[in-house]
Design brief:
The protein is an alpha/beta fold and 473 residues long. 48% of the residues lie in helices and 12% in strands. The protein has a four-stranded parallel beta sheet, with helices on one face. Strand 3, helix 1 and strand 4 form a beta-alpha-beta unit. It is globular, with a radius of gyration of 27 Å. Bound molecules: zinc ion (ZN) (2 copies). One zinc ion (ZN) is lined by residues 28, 213, 228, 230, 239, 242.
Length: 473
Amino acid sequence: MLEIYNTMTREKELFKSRGNNRINFFVCGPTVYEDAHIGHGRTYVAFDLIKRYLEYKGYAVFLIENITDVDDKIIQKSKEKEIDFKSISNYYEKRFKEDMDLLNVNSVNAYPKTTDYINEMLDQIQRLIDKGYAYETSEGIYFEVSKFSDFGKLSNQDLNKQKSRLQNENLETHSFDSNKKNIKDFALWKKTEEEPNFDSKWGKGRPAWHIEDTAITEEFFGQQYDIHGGGLDLIFPHHEAEVAQMEALSNKKPMVKYWMHTGFLNVNGVKMSKSLNNFITIRDLLEKWDPMVFRLFVLSTHYRTRIDFSEKSLDQAEKNLKRLKNTIQKLIDFKKDLDIEDKLENNELLDKLYEVKNNFFKDMDDDINTSKALADILNFTKVINGFISEHESNPNKNSLKFINETLAFYEDVESIFKLNLFYQDLKEDKGDYDDLLKILLETRDKLRQEKNYELSDYIRDKINDLGISIEDK
Ligand SMILES: [Zn+2]
Ligand SMILES: [Zn+2]
């Protein structure tokens, strides 16, 4: 039975979807004004994996990650570069999706963009005003925090306690509006004549950040849904504000059943920051490392635990990845050579396999503990390798059933972990690729000798598309 840690209740809870089989799942996506860094990589790999595990458990999961494509940082960059904001956000959105693709984060069902949901946000803001939770000033529309008595429940803060961050902190990061009723009231809409802006009944302006998620999730899922995820740093104020917005509108029906948050990523023991010059983008990383090495590195730590990025930890991940791939390849090769007639079952081995499978799924059911689950299957490679070498000296003792069931288990693991375990190539091995190219070029020469130019040109064009130029002599 799957248990998941819920940030709202601060407890591990038995997982039960709201609907029968469908899970509506929202994860805070990126603000597209620069390339995604490895901290984003960690979060999105983790949620991709969580989604895949829920699917493995038989649920139909719909996962959304929003793309914030209008925001102060994007506008700032568009001023610096003297390019319109749309070109900036389109460019970085495209690169973000390319990065995610390389990391096998391709289980996301929809990437809705802020600018496509302006009307839904305006509609939500109007309803908050109508219900008495929001008010207008000369600078914008604000959510009146003191009207929502549950404010603080997600981040476990009491609104009425002195010294609480909530009591004194201005939740706005950029401007400060002196007409706000209270310092802690947060913006829903910011009036501005500056481009880019959008029309509203309160004049031209731009949406604030928190309203984006609730407008999009209400549109896709309604006022209540199963899981909301994001990095740990988003709990306050971002997610707290979302709870206030949506539950104010729904008369306090719980917006989300499970809140899931991923831990921080450090680089060599310190927080990543531009000032420390230890900022690593996914693109920097992939120049040196195979994307699946990073993916395995992420899985080696439980998603809620702080993870420490270092060359050493990636080296270790690479070793482990190779070990898994090699073991699978050995099993496949071994099976090919096997005399099918000869199948004396080895029950001792089968028992070991069932034990590993059992532990693997028990660990995954324990709040998706990929760290332990990965250790289970890594340990098991010793058993498999022992079995193969023993067979070499004692060929009568093989077990086709053991091999088949082990391979089937690794296929299940692969469907959840998505580490390309059944492909042999790592980034560094390019040998096979050259051989293939040689075969293609020889084929093309034959075609030209036979004057089949249509097909030979087709091959040339396709090879050129890959960035390899070939000339006809
Ligand atoms: Zn968000
Ligand atoms: Zn959100």
